[in-house]
């Protein structure tokens, strides 16, 4: 943020060095001669009355997570200090159309970073790019990176990036507790990746133990944190995490999330490509689970409204469901969908941070404990707030097409079996309360 005096008019610009795009729509009110709501003081200017400039709060940090952002700034005069001509000039200055560049003076204001994020599995294929993207967030004050090996170099590398968060590394079980202490958001991408020919269920025996161990530590050290589960199979690992937290006596279903954002990101991308739409405008809700046929994009609910042939619906649905396999096969044994997963996970982290920071207009799809169907866990669109899930948006399950309704019924048995597998895993090996 910097203040500039141009031709006798005082204006403010939002500038986040190292992350300018991400903070381009910051929901903050700045008043001359007052303290900005971002927690930074703007220098006092000698003017007879105060005025304020308010960025659209509904679009706070939207540029980063791919949602639609506003193109305008709302300038509100709370006194007769600004006439209509002055307000018009002020608006133009924010659009970069003001040509006069003389009499400039600058003073920078740093956005306030106040949240601690821990990435467990930070040295892995998803963990490294995810940590980089989280490091770019202006809302993060501390970024704690944990893994069983090779995390020290990742932390050293990221610590050179000139963004606000302080990076710390933690290696091995003996340092896990310190990594998690007082953390606000925990992200768990730890585990083995998929290889050609593997299903998400093939990963179960290895990743189930990893998730169980890590969530036990979360329960002991930061039980109030938002917990983001990325480790596959998510359809089972989220129920595993829930059972562990229950046995520890700290389960809050509003704060446990299976990150299915990648399914939404893929759906938006594929639909935009197929229909030649502007990507930032496209929003396709994805419900169900996070594996194969349990992934159900509701193409009939696509925004903006668009029509699909029956063939297009089937082709798009199958591609979205099998997109992970598409990447695994393309990498030919060299890895899975790490970069797109990191991007999607970072989007969900940013949404969580915005919600924690008081943004009242944060919606994402996620796999959570739910009563939308007879299944105990189900992915759907949710509204996020300071305490986690604030509302589950069930209206999108109404008015489904015949194809979608049949697909919904078809996914339930497989999703039910995955949930029961996760619950049984923990119940067979109870954790220490």
TrEMBL record:
Keywords, in A-Z order: NAD, Oxidoreductase, Tricarboxylic acid cycle
InterPro entries cross-referenced by the UniProt entry: Lactate/malate_DH_C, Lactate/malate_DH_N, Lactate_DH/Glyco_Ohase_4_C, Malate_DH_AS, Malate_DH_type1, NAD(P)-bd_dom_sf
EC number: 1.1.1.37
Keyword NAD attributed: yes
Alphabetical list of SUPFAM superfamilies matching this protein: LDH C-terminal domain-like, NAD(P)-binding Rossmann-fold domains
PANTHER family xrefs: MALATE AND LACTATE DEHYDROGENASE, MALATE DEHYDROGENASE, MITOCHONDRIAL
Protein family membership: Belongs to the LDH/MDH superfamily. MDH type 1 family.
Name of protein: malate dehydrogenase
Source species of the chain: Rehmannia glutinosa
Lineage of source species: Eukaryota, Viridiplantae, Streptophyta, Embryophyta, Tracheophyta
